[in-house]
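Both lines are given unchanged directly below:

***
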Amino acid sequence: MLHNFKYTFITLFKNKALIFWTFAFPILLGTFFQMAFQDIENSEKLHKMEIAIVENERYQNSPIWKETFASLSNENNPNPLFDIFFVKEENEATELLKKDEVVGYLKLEDTPKIVVQKSGIYQTIFKSVVEEIQEQEILYNAWVQKNLEDHFSGNSQTPIDATWYQNLYQEMIEQLNTETKVQDITRSHLSYTMIEFYTLIAMAALYGGILGMTAINQVLANMSEKGKRMAMSPISKGKLVFSSVMASYFVQLIGITLLFFYTIFVLKVDYGNHLFQVVLLALVGSFAGLSLGVATASILKVSENTKIGVILAITMLGCFLSGMMGITMKYIIDKNIPMINKINPASMITDGFYALYYYDTFDRFYNNIVSLLLFSFLMLALSIIYLRRQKYDSI
């Protein structure tokens, strides 16, 4: 197994096309990003955004929505996120939106209704904040139900009024620590350019699929002379596949490391205070890319060049949908076909980066980590199933 690891590692490094796509191409693309977007940072900082809220009965009776938006628009906050126009009727909010005086408006019905007339980073942030508050409301309702049951079962004499609900809200915030905190941190390390580098890392991670595909092709009898010899040998096929995958993953990690060193020390990209999480996401994303390549090599019975084309096409499409060619694309997909980005590994990686810098908790970040691992294990499981079924009439 160690011999196969060494052989595969050396073979991959001697493949100039592989080295270009996994090592050189991301670095070249990162250089072009820096040249193209270096002047955008100062003009695209996150400013306080104007929104409208329909102040109906549902909103008035919800401490979660009222308190959170009050906090996010508080002028005493050094960096308030929202400037809120409260209106009584939805048509008033519609008029404000038509006049382009607000980026969007919110009306609470059975479910929150968000209306925007165009796509952009501010609309995406507005949507994300509403989603977080909605999750918080679900927790609050469960908390209220539990405390009501405890209240009546204990025959408490405390009256259930507005003060009781308000105190309950404060207790939930303190004990569950679910208060939404979104703030303008672009002045320190978040910029328009960073969004492009997020998708660049996602692309570089997924390009590891080419390495995984090449490594697996070497042990397939219908793809290489080495594979034919292995098919006739008594060596454990599982060990050979495992050592080949690990060798390709190790090569991919070298490429990701070089990309990080280049972007940090040459391009001076500031990944902020969460460098460990950034690296962790890149490592898991690389594993996802590798598993995609392994699955492609195992399932498709086509030539090696065709398999490479499939991996490149999937990677570039995934990066496009996650915002690499235009940051508004991610918002459009999330709004209209959210299931696509839920199974898109490139979107999982970029969304993990957004979670690091838009929120002060790691819940959403680790959800993306888990999603990437589930995607990886699914791809590997499919690969194992197809490899076990493969039989050859002649070798």
